[in-house]
Design a protein that fits this description.
A 4-stranded antiparallel β-sheet has the order 2-3-1-4. It is rod-shaped. The chain has a domain at 58-137: Alpha-Beta Plaits (2-Layer Sandwich). The chain is an alpha+beta fold. 33% of the residues lie in helices and 24% in strands. The chain has helices at residues 2-16, 48-53, 74-87, 111-123, and strands spanning 60-71, 92-97, 100-108, 130-137. The protein is built from 4 helices and 4 strands.
């Protein structure tokens, strides 16, 4: 008797389930939306051969840079760097040192050159400009594109 009750309790849920028939003609796989990959490494004005022919070794050495701004916000540092690129003729860098983005200008080997730029920036109204010792890109190995 117990065996009969056990078998009924075991098979009744199986018989109570609905059988679903799936029509495979209707069901379709959803196509994934792949990201668009844009390769901007070389623009129209630069050929691959000319880039390969340039020396890609860049020498890094000790020197001086002038720091003009330190902020926690990348957008502010980036927009200020664009302004500085249009204002001064030296290289402009945005470096991240926790927790700030720092806008720094120049690759100076001699401190006197950095002091000259600092004085020019102070005369333009950037009173917080100060000189710091930093690793710089060597002037001789810099490649202009």
């Amino acid at each position: 008797m117990h065996n009969l009750v056990f078998l009924i309790l075991l098979y009744v849920p199986l018989l109570a389930q609905e059988i679903q028939v799936i029509d495979h003609k209707i069901v379709k796989d959803i196509q994934p939306i792949w990201p668009v990959i844009i390769n901007n490494v070389l623009d129209d004005s630069t050929s691959f051969e000319s880039v390969i022919s340039l020396d890609s070794v860049q020498s890094v050495m000790e020197g001086y840079r002038v720091q003009v701004l330190a902020t926690r916000y990348f957008e502010r540092a980036h927009s200020f760097a664009i302004i500085m690129k249009n204002t001064v003729s030296d290289s402009v860098y945005v470096d991240f040192e926790t927790p700030n983005y720092k806008v720094r200008i120049g690759d100076f080997i001699e401190r006197e050159s950095a002091e000259s730029l600092q004085q020019d920036l102070v005369q333009m109204g950037y009173n917080s400009a100060w000189i710091l010792r930093s690793r710089i890109n060597s002037q001789a190995s810099r490649i202009k594109y």
